[in-house]
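Lecture 7 notes: from sequence to structure.

We start with a single chain of 156 residues. Read the sequence below before looking at the structure.
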Amino acid sequence: MPRPYQFTGNNQASLFGVDLNNNGIRDDYERMLLTSYQRSEYVAMGILAAERWDKLLRLLQSQESIKTPYQALELFNDTIAINQCYYSLQQIDKTLISPVLSYFNNDQLLEAKYKAELLLLDIIGSKQTSFTFHQEPCERFAEFAKKTKTTKFAAL
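Now the structure, written as tokens:
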């Protein structure tokens, strides 16, 4: 189950966790996805959500280039859409558990998430009033997948 992008940086294990099989997915998170979700689309959604969360964490390590309020607003809105999608799916599938707390599963990761979100809000600045939330938040996963596919093929 390879992740469709690569980590950058040498000290990824400190924040991103251990990836012994080198497939780009933190081992504890991968184990949770594979043992908790019986539906393959939930596993895929968990991987796509982790890509956005990784991007958030890379922002703290200056490995992600978010320079404009628009870029920051897009990432912030994506993280909100992920939460909204899981919430709406939980109304239908009572067994579904959002992977957010499995991804941010310790104090260091929760603190990093909080700091990265504050940094995004600082970059967004006065544009915070222009927040527009996705009307169909689950469709963001399809957009994530399309971007990943385009990026992956463009790199080849």
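The longest helix spans residues 69-92. Keep this in mind for problem set 3.
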